[in-house]
Amino acid sequence: MFRFLLHTVTMFVFAAVMAFAQQPKLEIVGGETFDWGKVKPPKEGHLAAEIKIRNSSPREIKLLEIRPGCGCTKTDPDKMEIPSGEVSTMGVKLNINPAQSGPIVKSITVRWGDKEGIAARDEFHKNGTPIPVNLDTTESFSYISLKADIQRSLVLGPNQYFSFADAKIGQEVTSTVYLTNNDSNPITISDFVTDGGIVVNVMDKRVIKPGEKLEIVARYVPQAKGQITGGLKFATSSVDVPAIDIRAYGQVAESTSPVFPKAQSK
Hints:
mainly beta
């Protein structure tokens, strides 16, 4: 009896191990994070890479969906169905906007499953065909992280724009941004142009030394209720940031001061 029980337990464990070994397994070659490291802003407006996906299980895998997160894109893989041991390759792009700098992290979601199991599941839902007990019908998810640290010679902070809060008709509001030279060489800024009624404290040609931070203060006196538009544009001697456009944002409300009373309804 003891030998029979031992044999039964051994067979059960063996069957469980074999079932686990047969489960589909998707591997992102090189790891689930693709890191470009510290890079200069790309002239093309994006960073590109190839991601390889390997089927490391004995069963064929089907890619059901590849969904890029905001700020990144992908090309269709060369294989949506990956036989055991084979690799599917797709191109990905991490989009970099003109004002972006510092660390960036985006993700891509890969939804996949056992090809035969997914087909059996779909057939069951469509026609009620029974699913063989040895098939895996579950969907799995893998996540690919795209990382980069964009090193710009000129960086705006703490915001990339002028923010005018609590703006009221006839009352001056201010907003400050700082322009920092992260380059090893001096950078010249010039050719300042404002629009939309924005006035700034810097309108003459300046040279910003390496590591130096320039304070830019914008002032605005609203004349009407509504959305604030306008901003500041200027040129720089930086190769990777030849021009900077700082836009202004805010909402103007009616003033409640005695000088600017609210209009009385007739």
